[in-house]
Amino acid sequence: MATSLESTESRDLPALDRQRSSTVPARTPVSRSIWRCASLVAALGLWQIATQYKVSLGFVTMANVPAPTEVALAFWRLLHSPKLPMHLFASIMRVLVGFSAATIVGIGLGLAIGRYRAFEDTVLPSLEVLRPIPAVAWIPLAILMFPSSEMSMMFITFIGALFPILLNTVHGVEGVDPRLVATARSLGTGGLSLFSEVILPGAAPAILTGLSIGMGTAWFCLITAEMIAGQYGIGYFTWESYSLQNYADIVVGMLLIGALGMGSSVLVKRLGLMLMPWYRLSEARR
């Protein structure tokens, strides 16, 4: 009798969970956008209060940090400066070239490493040795290898974006269901058709994740390179502002870097989802 009661209760638990979840109001896209904007305004308010009252916590102080109002004025001055288009164009072009090269090389190597063990045993050990090396350590060698500082900075962005794309592609290929591959082979699919029709679509979500991470890493590495070897770019502008003690411009440069990195990562993700209609449908069914 007790067993039958327990089984009845266990069967009713999912129904109770659905009933409870249905009583929680779901947020609409408009309400989520309002909530996110409110959180951003609250963060700016806390920043203003901390700088206005020179809050000090012992190990960190806001006495010398510029207030949001000062940063806004500095940003307004930069918008009217003729150097802003040159800084933006230089940084965006370096990221585009390095990221595009990393996409081609990373996806190509990742597909081969994930699919062929002989290729993995030959190439992957060397790449794993190079992967933990930070971008800053590559800068002196890049300056020696390339005839111009422009090429060396593009190489730094390439290195930064390569490994996230490569590793996510490898994991995506290894995660493809072997039954799909066996079924495709039994139907006569092989060679490049197997890659284009089975392996690549199956690994596409992981590749998209690697591209989004790689874009953010490319911006991080580029800014580091521009601070050392650049003459134009957002990283050079930020470092020059520090040298000239224009502290508000430092924050402007940081915010520009964050906005460009976030915007480009979102763009990569949106483009990837447009190219993967089957992935969008599977997410909508969940």
UniProtKB/TrEMBL annotation:
Q: Which InterPro entries match?
A: MetI-like, MetI-like_sf
| Transmembrane regions listed in the UniProt entry | 56-76, 88-109, 129-146, 153-171, 191-211, 250-268
Q: Where in the cell is it found?
A: Cell membrane
- Gene3D superfamilies, sorted: MetI-like
Pfam families per UniProt: BPD_transp_1
Q: Which domain of life is it from?
A: Bacteria
Predominant localisation class: membrane
Annotated ABC transmembrane type-1 domain ranges read 88-268
State the residue spans of region: Disordered: 1-24
Q: Which UniProt keywords apply?
A: Cell membrane, Membrane, Transmembrane, Transmembrane helix, Transport
Q: How does it sit in the membrane?
A: Multi-pass membrane protein
- Basic and acidic residues bias spans: 8-20
Q: Which family does it belong to?
A: Belongs to the binding-protein-dependent transport system permease family.
Q: PANTHER family annotated for this entry?
A: ABC TRANSPORTER PERMEASE PROTEIN MJ0413-RELATED, ALKANE SULFONATE ABC TRANSPORTER-RELATED, MEMBRANE SUBUNIT
Q: What is this protein called?
A: NitT/TauT family transport system permease protein
Say which species the protein is native to: Caballeronia udeis
